[in-house]
Amino acid sequence: MTTAICIKCGAFKFGAICPCKKCGAWPETEDDYVASFVFTDHFNSTAELEKIGVQIASGSNIRVEPGTLEPALMETIRQLMRSAKAREPRKDIPQVP
Ligand SMILES: [Zn+2]
Q: What is the distance in A from the centroid of ligand 1 to the CA of 6?
């Protein structure tokens, strides 16, 4: 299981793309997804993740530089975003009662 940091509150969570147990935040934007992937034990040691978590919890806006992730991983992230969006109810289509 992937150890990750919640990009909204800095709490530890398991799995990059999942809701935070503490604050319930999901990654929403592409930046959120990228940060959620980068702030995992695939890219950082547990000690580094702890440091990042403390910074996020204290209100620092931690940005991930564009190009941090390989293009192949970016494509995976975009596919994940598309499938996450596909599960949301469509608001632009009028529902027939
Ligand atoms: Zn959180």
A: 5
| Residue 42 dihedral angles phi and psi, to the nearest 5° | -75, -25
- Predicted TM-score (pTM) of the model is 0.81
Distance 56 CA to ligand 1 centre (A): 10
Task: In whole angstroms, give the CA distance from residue 61 to residue 42.
Answer: 21
How does pLDDT run across 12-25, given as a tens digit for each residue? Answer: 999 988 899 999 99
**72 Cα: distance to centroid of ligand 1 (angstroms):** 27
Domain locations in the chain as residue ranges:
3-87
